[in-house]
Amino acid sequence: MRFDIAKSGSGLVYEIRNIVSVADRLKRSGIEVIWENIGDPVQKGEKVPDWMREVLIDLLREDRTYGYSPTKGMDVTRQFLADMVNKRGKVQIGPDDIIFFNGLGDAIARAYGAIRVDARIIMPEPTYSTHLLAEVLHASFPPNTYRMNPYCDWSPDINELERKVKSHKAIVGILVINPDNPTGFVYPEEMLRRIVEIARTYDLFIIFDETYHHIVFNGKTTVPLSDIIGDVPGICMKGISKEFPWPGSRCGWMEIYNADKDETFARYIDAILTQKMSEVCSTTLPQMAIPRIMAHPKYQGYLEERVRHYEKLSNIAYRVLKDLPYVMVNKTCGAFYMTVVFNDAVLNNRQCLPIDQEDVRQYIQKLVSQPVEPDKRFVYYLLGATGICVIPLTSFFTDLPGFRMTLLDRDEAKFEQVVRTLAEKIVAYVESAR
User: For a Cys-Cys bond, which of 88, 96, 181, 381 suits 353, CB 3.0-4.6 Å?
Assistant: First the structure.
């Protein structure tokens, strides 16, 4: 090429997918990989029920399934979703306040991409990688964050949030992920109301990612943004990837609140929609399936059974790990992840795990011979020694070393064995340098 055409990167890596290349290399050496890196229920054995398959089969017989949808999304589906919000009676929206995207990854990219480069969204720390990457790439600077405290059940520091909002005038919006990914924290209503009040006080808008809103357990409860937003401008992001589950559908949507009450916010939403028009529309089939699946008489029972299963796995993992030396663990109460944090000064670059297979050992040693974060070093050795593939916590933009695993295995006994192996290897790894 006559000159370098590649845009400079941010230096950040989407480790949830990046580690797959490492795991695939080990698979070629005969290692059986246990995938704990990504929240794909289908990959972990979730069976789509026959009644849901029949809904899709019926839709495939309809010609309109194969055509474009309107740019904002199928009219019937948007009306159905607006009606669901309006039935709660806290706030009223119409179908035009809903915009469909090809998955929430697309929605997130559009949301941050439409913001001025000198305007910032403050987000939780640790935070889900897709939000982090999109916000940093739009601004080309490290993010502003408010910390989730692992020594207080991962509760966010709301006082820190308000201090930063007050002092950093470039902050125009607040991101809340509820239930949280990667920590599994479920926001109580009073905390959400305080965040909304901060947005109102400092003239900000809110982004709520409610991907896992109906996956809450262990006695916790929460409320949707629509119940508490009042007259504050906001965006609520939702999807079907985890709830149906249908991650391969790539189908998510934004619910827009109070654009009619703020001209600046309305222009921002119009910029998102203008970007959306450049790709014409989002995939039609999954949009058409939403009303028929969510209104199906078997849907709620099916969802409740899955939530009970995640609760069981959450409690199994917590029981095995809670008294383990060297780490700190909170019980997951929402979504389907558990985050384990190593205690201060526990990890160093002399620790390792025994790996019997020579070529695998050499490959892992080569990976860790270059500077890597201490928790990433552990993750690589764990993968080489056991085939268990987790994600280093520092990949979620935090200085806290640790890892995130999923609560998705359909086989409870197999899951407990994986967790016990993790516990054993944590101790062995930390004590290997003594």
Answer: 381
pLDDT in tens, 248-257: 999 999 999 9
Closest CA to 173 of 198, 210, 149: 198
154-162 mean pLDDT: 96
By the 10 Å C-beta count (0-12 exposed, 13-18 middle, 19+ buried), 43 is classed as middle
3-class DSSP state of 106: helix
Among left, alpha and beta (phi > 0; psi -120 to 50; other), residue 397 is left
Q: Quick one: pLDDT at residue 14?
A: 62
Output the CA torsion 199→201→202→205 (10° steps).
30
pTM of the model: 0.94
- State pLDDT tens for residues 255-286: 999 999 999 999 999 999 998 888 888 999 99
Q: What CATH number matches the domain at 50-294, 3.40.640.10, 3.80.10.10, 3.20.20.70, 3.40.50.720?
A: 3.40.640.10
With beta carbons less than 8 A apart as the criterion, state whether 424 and 327 touch: no
**Domain spans, the chain:** 15-46+300-431, 50-294
CATH topology of domain 15-46+300-431: Aspartate Aminotransferase, domain 1 (3.90.1150)
Secondary structure (3-state) at 427: helix
Question: Quick one: which of 241, 234, 243, 253 has its CA closest to 213?
Answer: 243
The answer to whether residues 311 and 217 touch, using CB atoms and an 8 Å cutoff, is: yes
